[in-house]
Design brief:
Strand order of the largest sheet: 3-4-5-10
CATH class: Alpha Beta
CATH superfamily: NAD(P)-binding Rossmann-like Domain
Distance between the termini: 17 Å
Largest sheet: 4 strands, parallel
CATH architecture: 3-Layer(aba) Sandwich
Number of strands: 12
Oligomer: single chain
Order of helices and strands: HEHEEHHEHEEHEEEHEEHEHHH
CATH topology: Rossmann fold
Shape: globular
Number of helices: 11
Helix content: 25-40%
Strand content: 5-15%
Number of domains: 1
Length: 330
């Protein structure tokens, strides 16, 4: 698994290990974390290769499945690493596909809803081609994933590589970096610290949220199938950004105010997947409700901010949770 030290990759690694797989993670730790690797290293069937997949890398032994998750995935990260983002989506995808071809392995590409850009069709079905600015501030991520999808399709059609493409929509859960620039970790850390929640624009733009265990279940189902995709993996509960901020503030018991900031260029106005293809071909549908997932994630962030110097001034109601994020520790 490339990018296995990242947020989604860490969850997916642990689940594959629990399923009995031997997992080798290849990651250069630019946006992934060494701590996540160290925790996974406790498992006897886990191994790690620190390498940049945009450059050729060597994997010894037979490989049955290649899952390509490597890429900066948040606007903060790919804005800071624009060339690296393009290279991991192009050269990195080629090297991962070459590994799958060499071993006769199944290949799964973790693509993104960003291939739809600022969509003019809603909800977004897989046959929609998108509305993407190729030279805008989000283009390095959008176009790297669009290229990765095209290259994956070319390897399937011209080299008979067994490939599958997943288009992942907004995924969240315990293990997200507080500083990665995405709205859920930002809102949660702001609410817990008693800071203003920064909502872009007027907050009317919408997102559909998918808890990380649902996303990884979809990726595992795609890996176990012969489906070529692309298939959308995402939640169906569409909420506005302002509604999300207010919900997180309520769940946190926070008195933080809402502060509106400038809307980033090319920020999508709507985002909701048509997941009928995933339901029909993979038998997949999300099972974790938005408030349940937000509570699990908020509990985790609260634990990370437990030091007196970083806790918010306001108190909040505590909710008892039973979930596997504490075991993950990512």
């Amino acid at each position: 698994m490339t990018g296995g030290a990242g947020f989604v990759g860490t969850w997916l690694c642990r689940q594959l290990l629990d399923d009995g797989w031997h997992v080798l993670v290849v990651d250069n730790l630019v946006t992934g974390t060494r701590a996540a690797v160290d925790r996974l290293s406790c498992h006897p069937n886990f191994s790690f290769l620190e390498a940049d997949v945009a450059r050729p890398f060597l994997v010894e032994g037979a490989v049955d499945l290649v899952m390509h998750l490597a890429s900066p995935a948040s606007p903060v990260d790919y804005a800071a690493l624009p060339v690296e983002t393009m290279l991991v989506g192009s050269q990195g995808t080629m090297h991962a596909l070459d590994l799958a071809q060499l071993n006769g392995a199944r290949f799964v590409l973790a693509s993104t809803s960003e291939v739809y850009g600022d969509p003019l069709v809603h909800p977004q079905p897989e046959h929609y081609w998108g509305n993407v600015n190729p030279v805008g501030p989000r283009s390095v991520y959008d176009e790297s994933k669009r290229f990765a999808e095209a290259l994956t399709t070319a390897y399937r059609s011209s080299r008979s590589v067994d490939t599958g493409i997943a288009r992942i929509f907004n995924t969240y859960g315990p293990g997200m970096r507080a500083d990665d620039g995405r709205m859920i970790p930002a809102f949660m850390t702001q609410a817990l610290r008693g800071e203003p929640l920064t909502v872009a624009g007027d907050g009317s733009q919408t997102r559909s949220l998918c808890f990380v265990t649902d996303t990884t279940a979809g990726l595992r189902a795609l890996a176990a199938s012969s489906c070529a995709g692309p298939v959308n993996l995402g939640g169906q509960d569409e909420v506005s950004v302002l509604e999300l901020a207010e919900t997180i503030r309520r769940l946190a018991g926070s008195r933080s105010r809402i502060r509106f900031v400038d809307l980033p260029e090319d920020d999508p106005k709507v985002r909701r997947p048509d997941t009928s293809r995933a339901q029909q071909l993979l038998g997949w549908a999300p099972s974790v409700g938005v408030e349940e997932g937000l509570l699990r994630t908020l509990e985790w962030f609260d634990q990370q901010l437990a030091e007196p110097s970083t806790r918010g001034a306001g108190s909040r109601q505590r909710t008892a949770l039973t979930s596997d994020e504490s075991a993950l520790g990512a």
